[in-house]
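Sync notes, pocket subgroup
Present: LS, DG
LS reminded everyone that the earlier model was apo-only. Rerun requested with 3-hydroxy-3-methylglutaryl-coenzyme A included. Inputs:
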Amino acid sequence: NLPKEVIMKEVGPRDGLQNEKEWIPTEHKIAWINMLSNTGVKEIEYSSFVNPKMIPALKDAREVGERIIRNPDVTYSALVPNMKGLEFALEAGIDRASVFMSASEMHNQKNINKSIGDTYPILEEVIKEAKDAGKLVTGYISTVFDCPYQGKITPEQVLEVCDRLVEAGVDDLSLGDTIGTAVPTDVEKLLEVLLKHFPKEKLILHFHDTRGMAIANIMTSLHYGINRFDSTVGGLGGCPYAKGATGNVDTNDVLYLLHGIGIETGISEKKMQQAGLYIQNILGKQLPSRSLAYISNA
Ligand code: HMG
Ligand code: MG
């Protein structure tokens, strides 16, 4: 009962770059996103419309959004924390707004400077306005397994945030293993609870690969019928407000798994590897990617 097809969202230009200390010129970001747009991937998160003082690496979100060449087969999303961010994102062009908050009170406070309770009314307004503007909306929930400040998070805590975001009108939920601590039994426990409340089509899994568990966790999620995953090419990235958080699962590793077990994605592995090599070259450092190391040495 594995899904026949999986929809991957490439979050490299957002989650992958948000933590980069070296400035990456806008031209290079645009060229890279254009490459990603031609890999067959169906969704790309191209940047964040957040406070540029907090995430300086993505302060060119508007220019990026205005200048990328849009492939009509790709859904373009961006991170939006508040009404100001939504206004900029709508001007720059988005198909989907990604709102975000945490299941953990302390991570929410560090990341977006508010309590969970104070975040709901802000996101409710953003979600409503985005829907009224005809956009899709994803609700990201961070720290669904563990919080770097608070420890274990229960599935019930996650469910509460999911419920509020779904009531507010999000189309789907992306569940973030922000610091990459989950093992397959944690994924099972969370999905057992959430799938009693939401159809599997509403759930996206967003794994960081800090401890190399992401592929095992994706395999477990597939057995629950989950068919949407976030990833970054080359395993780029990390959350600047979650100490010890490394990159997302490498898109190329996920493709190797999915294609190997007969699940379609529509993505060319070769083109995705080339997009990985391109950004690796721009960053001037080796990405934490087995597949890129393998083809570079071949
Ligand atoms: P705040 O400080 O509470 O907000 O920030 P504020 O309204 O008081 O504004 C402070 C300053 O930010 C003001 O500027 C605003 O104009 C400006 P100043 O007067 O100081 O010059 N500002 C903005 N500027 C541009 N665009 C905006 C915007 N909003 C305010 N949209 C806020 C609240 C949420 C904005 C802030 O805390 C923030 O930007 N946080 C960014 C957090 C972030 O991007 N974290 C990483 C992404 S989340 C993640 O990686 C997890 C995920 O991948 C899933 C997972 O792995 O778990 C999604
Ligand atoms: Mg993330």
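DG: The longest strand covers residues 96-102.
LS: The pocket of 3-hydroxy-3-methylglutaryl-coenzyme A (ligand 1) is lined by residues 15, 18, 48-52, 54-55, 79, 81-82, 84-85, 88, 100, 111-113, 140, 142, 176, 178, 206, 208, 239, 241 (CB under 6 Å).
Action: DG to write up.
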